[in-house]
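Repro case for the chain-ordering regression, as requested:
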Amino acid sequence: MASGPRSLWNGTLTFGLVNVPVKVFTAQQSESIHFHQVHLADEARIEHRKVCPKEDKEVPSDEIVKGYELSDGGIVVLAKEEIAAAAGENAKLIDVETFVPDEQIDPIYYDKTYYLGAGEDGEPAFRLLRKALEQTGRVAIGRWVFHDRERLVAVKPLDGVLAMHVMHFHDEVVSPGDLDLPSPQKNPTDRELQMAGKLVKSLQAKFEPHRYKDTYREAVLAVIERKRSGEQIEAPEPEPAEEPEDLMKALEASLG
Amino acid sequence: MARALWTGSLSFGLVNVPVQLVSAVRDLDLHFRQIHAKDDTPVETRRVCSKEGKEVPYEEIGNEYDGVVVTDEELSAADPAKTRTIDIESFVKLEEIDPIYYDHPYYLVPAGETDGTVRAYRLLAGVMEQSGRVALGRFVLRTKEYLVAIRVREKALTLSTLRFADEVRDTKGIPGAGGRTKPSEVKEAVKLIEALSGDWDPTAYEDEYRKRLQAIVRRKRKGGEIKQPETDPERTQPVPDLMKALEESLALHG
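-- result from build under test --
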């Protein structure tokens, strides 16, 4: 078989009476440095062991079950199949309920993204959906059960395939009112706002994702190399965040 | 209020705003614990030294990479400026950021309630609301650098971590890319999408899975039996005739 990306999930996306066989693929990958945890005293690897506190012994994985802890400390043990029953009839479905204009979705809802590709015998229906979405400029909103959780998803065309954006449910999103933001004694003056507006204008740019590189990765590798050569690494003293004394002065100085 | 995940400074030109980072989402999922089946006891995960076989306290753990061990403190020397400051580099249009870049949403709140801090925060929120633009910056959270997009939502600054371009995979090899479509089918599919269209209303969607799972826990607690729901085979089979399925859907929803 041709080696291509491997799918994480196979199922069907449905809208109206149209079933589209689809496969889900990862769209994101982490490029950061992966460390192993070690014991500083002897540099031996740290192992994460599952221990029963009652017996004070390591527990083999075949003796572990999933349980839900009740508020009174009682435990309700559920078998894998019983948890899976919560998926309802939709275990193998991405059930599209509606289509909405793309720009109405506040980015605060977005979580992870996956790619959708055509599943077996699904190419004609997949292409049709993608084409129709492109023409209408709408995104498909549906539900998807994955890893014992239901997720709200937004599906839209991207780069010849479909991107599936996982979204948070509305009750998971904290509303600004819950933050209890303090009010200043005196609001910023018009003059300050005007100056700040000039500063924003001077920094306007187009978003070009490829211009940004993770430079921290190199900085971490440099620390590792210094340590390897036996250098002493001084951790910097934390400085308290400086409070602005005179906003107007700082704005004027910024505009130079 | 939510726990601060990071405290530092948001810098806009020479204006510094002391801020704290809090998550913009709360976890409402039902969490299961791992249970030792024999004695119904929740299992603990212990960090154990593989050489000594003894539990190791968190302060005695280091990070090993390529044969070199560094402590968390030493790592904080990597880029102290980015570890403490989110430096606003530019202001871009919201629609230029494809949602594939979004990672996790947070709020930035003033760190402390002194008037200088609160006014500077207000000023930045106010001017961003006026400009309608998104501020781009970067910072280091825990041990990873993020590109971030900062916006205003009802006077509160939101911060979304973004993926770097090299963290977004190529679509190469994803099946179903490109290819032809039949114009007559596309026309019907567009009609169906329009018939099923509405405005985005996030409150219209509740997490039904969470509710079903809660019901399952309750039933099981009372000793009830949990039945497997059947999947409707008609909804998971590929449709042999797309045009017919579209027409029937339109008759139903059009």
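Ordering looks correct now. The CA atoms of residues 177 and 201 of chain A lie 29 Å apart.
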